[in-house]
Amino acid sequence: MLYHLSNYLNDFNFPGAGLMSYITFRSGAALMLSLFIATIIGRKIINRLQLMQVGEVVRDLGIAEQNAKIGTPTMGGIIIIISIVLPCLLVGNLTSVYMILLIISTLWLGTIGFLDDLLKLKYKNKDGLKGRYKIVGQVGLGLIVGLTMYLSPDIVIRENHEVENVVNHETVITYEAENVKSTQTTIPFVKDNNFDYATLTSWLGDYAQLGGWILFIIVTILVITATSNGANLTDGLDGLAAGTSAIIGVALAIMAYLGSNVVYSSYLNIMYIPGSEELVVYMAAFVGALIGFLWYNANPAQVFMGDTGSLTLGGIIAVYAIMIHKELLIPVLCGIFFIETIAVMIQVPYFKYTKKKYGEGLRIFKMTPLHHHFQKPGDGSIKALIQRPKVAIPESRLVTRFWIIAIFLAVITFVTLKIR
């Protein structure tokens, strides 16, 4: 709103109106607004949740730190969503397809998470919304994002190429002269850093490009579903999901900024994405909202984000990465989410298999999601293949270490772009 108002005032040479034309200014404003909103409304929402007796339903894990959280207000993801959307409406360009799609994604996933939390509180258990309904919602969003990427004339790229200068034999990065619709994405460890989904459907002949878009939409659905659920699994310790997501958000914002500038894009030898600078404004609000939420969610937490927040955070990260054509970097950048998911995926089948074969279920990890494994002492009281660490790690220290790993993974993600 303020962005469009400033454009109108700028036509009359109104003093200061031109500031809103700068991405850096609007991103800074979005960050400060979201941080301010989260800290101010956060207290009011927490008080309201306490009055409504909206307390977290906590599984008895035999961990004193976890059991002490029973009754702590949940559904705090509402704080995050409000703190993201309001600044975007105020300083964002609401004609940008990127901004519109991200706001829709935020509200869409927030609604799914809210319904899940609501059912958990209503029936006082951890079941919530049935898994198939969550999947339907995530698949639905994947279709919206994928089809919009395919159909919108405003979502385009300029492909990058390496050209050797015949005079001094230096490598120069050049770009196509025109914007094009493309199924290309960024992939690490290869020379040109580009991978085209259409190459996998080249056997379709004249329909190879259409096949590439269909494959891209399928990948979009899988990435959104996996990342959203991965963030949901990670949300089990005070500040873990919020802090990790904020670190990932900073990395994605930098990638979007670099990809929207032809000079910086050529330095990294990545595709140039015209118009994607608006994504930086959104991600600034995203990071600011999470930092503000951490004011209340840091150990010991005064509020939990619930599925309202965790499903939304993972989905936003996935949609954002897809729009800047960096979805194949998610396993590295979101390594915490990825490992948490893999741990559950191998633990459950192994437990069922050993129970069927030996009459007693055995574990690989002492407990999953993986962060709970480190909260249990490796004294043999739980039959698991991996007993280390022998001594349980306090929650605050464990969360800090996960944050450090998330920072390391973010740096590694950037490094992979320069490794050929």
Please name the defining characteristics of this protein.
two-stranded antiparallel ribbon; 420 residues; 4 strands; two-stranded antiparallel sheet; mainly alpha
Largest β-sheet summary? 2 strands, antiparallel
Structural class call reads mainly alpha
Task: State the strand order across the main sheet.
Answer: 1-2
Number of helices: 15
Radius of gyration: 23 Å
SSE order, as H and E? HHHHHHEEEEHHHHHHHHH
Q: What this model shows, in words?
A:
The protein is mainly α. It has one domain (26-163, 169-331). Helix content is 60%, strand content 4%. It is built from 15 helices and 4 strands. It has helices at residues 2-10, 23-51, 64-67, 77-91, 97-123, 131-151, 208-234, 240-259, 262-268, 278-297, 306-323, 330-333, 335-358, 370-373, 395-416; strands at residues 160-164, 171-175, 184-186, 194-196. The chain has a two-stranded antiparallel ribbon with strand order 1-2. A two-stranded antiparallel ribbon has the order 3-4. The longest helix has 29 residues, at 23-51. It is globular, with a radius of gyration of 23 Å.
SSE arrangement:
Layout (H helix, E strand, L loop, with lengths): L1 H9 L12 H29 L12 H4 L9 H15 L5 H27 L7 H21 L8 E5 L6 E5 L8 E3 L7 E3 L11 H27 L5 H20 L2 H7 L9 H20 L8 H18 L6 H4 L1 H24 L11 H4 L21 H22 L4
Helix pairs in contact: 2-4, 2-10, 4-5, 4-10, 4-11, 5-6, 5-11, 6-7, 7-11, 7-13, 8-10, 8-11, 8-15
How would you sum up this structure in a few lines?
This protein has helices at 2-10, 23-51, 64-67, 77-91, 97-123, 131-151, 208-234, 240-259, 262-268, 278-297, 306-323, 330-333, 335-358, 370-373, 395-416; strands spanning 160-164, 171-175, 184-186, 194-196. Helices cover 60% and strands 4% of the residues.
